[in-house]
Amino acid sequence: MASSTQNIVRWTALLAGIAYGATHLRSVQREQHAAHADAERKHKEQLYAQAKQAWEDKVKSKGKEALEKTKEKAEELITDPKDPKFDLAKLIEHAAKKHSPSHA
Fold first, then answer.
1. Cβ–Cβ contacts within 10 Å for residue 67, how many?
2. Within 13 Å, how many C-alpha atoms sit on residue 63's CB side?
3. What is the C-alpha to C-alpha distance for residues 85 and 80, in angstroms, rounded to an integer?
4. 3-class SS of residue 76
5. What is the pLDDT of residue 72?
6. Residue ranges of E strands in 1-104
7. How confident is the model at residue 45 (pLDDT cuts 50, 70, 90)?
8. 73-88: string of b/e by CB count within 10 Å (b at 16+)?
9. Inter-residue contact 86 to 77 (CB < 8 Å)
10. DSSP annotation of 83
11. Which among 21, 35, 70, 86 is most buried, taking Cβ atoms within 10 Å?
12. Which of 62, 94, 58, 60 is nearest to 75 (CA)?
């Protein structure tokens, strides 16, 4: 039969092993959780960057279209004096350019 000192050493070693195992398991789980959270954060950042790029492309394309339409409207010469957008100076300038000798 084993002496009481041997039993104490055995039980102490068993409890120390269990405590070490539990501590090690917790640290491994924390590392895995941190790695998973980091991967999820990177994925969300990637999705955010893609969405931001898509939005910028959409805004740029709509902005270019709107700018072109605005330029076309601005370039149109309004000759009706009753129109609120009628500009006599633009009409005179247009006529001067049209009839100037350097324009020919």
1. 10
2. 6
3. 9
4. coil
5. 65
6. none
7. very high
8. eeeeeeeeeeeeeeee
9. no
10. S
11. 86
12. 94
Residues 6+ apart with CB under 8 A from 22: none
Extract the tokens encoding 60: 């740029």
Amino acid at residue number 15: L
pLDDT tier, 104 (very low <50, low <70, confident <90, very high otherwise): very low
Q: What token pair was written down for 23?
A: 């501590």
Terminal C-alpha separation, the chain: 124
pLDDT digit string, tens, across residues 60-91: 877 777 767 766 666 677 778 888 888 888 88
Which residue's entry shows tokens 């350019």? 97
Q: Say if pTM beats, i.e. exceeds, 0.70.
A: no
Distance CA(87)–CA(95), nearest Å, equals: 13
Q: Are 85 and 78 in contact (CB under 8 A)?
A: yes
Token pair in block for residue 20? 């070490």
Rounded to whole angstroms, how far apart are CA atoms 51 and 55?
6
